Amino acid sequence: MLARLFSALCLCAGIHASEKPNIVIFLVDDLGIGDIGAFGNDTLRTPHVDSICENGVKLDHDLAAASLCTPSRTALMTSRYAIRSGMTSVI
């Protein structure tokens, strides 16, 4: 699953299969699209993240498996829906 994701990112970035890309995945709790300077925020300073966006590929369509951190982290680490791993909350 992750190999397909990396291949898709390489295609988007124009990187050949023989090169080894540097891929950074941010999993952040409670972060909105407008909270980073590269996406238009001029209140909070995020120079390092802005530098990554300026010098690399900036993806602007982000999805989360759930609105809470545990199911989202589980989905990222296992490539499965969190409910299939038993990582959901019962209300």
UniProtKB/TrEMBL annotation:
Residues of the Sulfatase N-terminal domain: 21-89
Which domain of life does this protein belong to? Eukaryota
Q: Name any cofactors this protein relies on.
A: Ca(2+)
Keywords assigned by UniProt, alphabetized: Signal
Q: Name one GO molecular function term.
A: arylsulfatase activity
- Family matches, as Gene3D superfamilies: Alkaline Phosphatase, subunit A
The signal peptide annotation in the UniProt record is: 1-17
Q: Which Pfam families match?
A: Sulfatase (PF00884)
Does Secreted appear among the keywords? Answer: no
Q: Does the keyword Signal apply?
A: yes
Q: Which family does it belong to?
A: Belongs to the sulfatase family.
Write down what this protein is called: Sulfatase N-terminal domain-containing protein
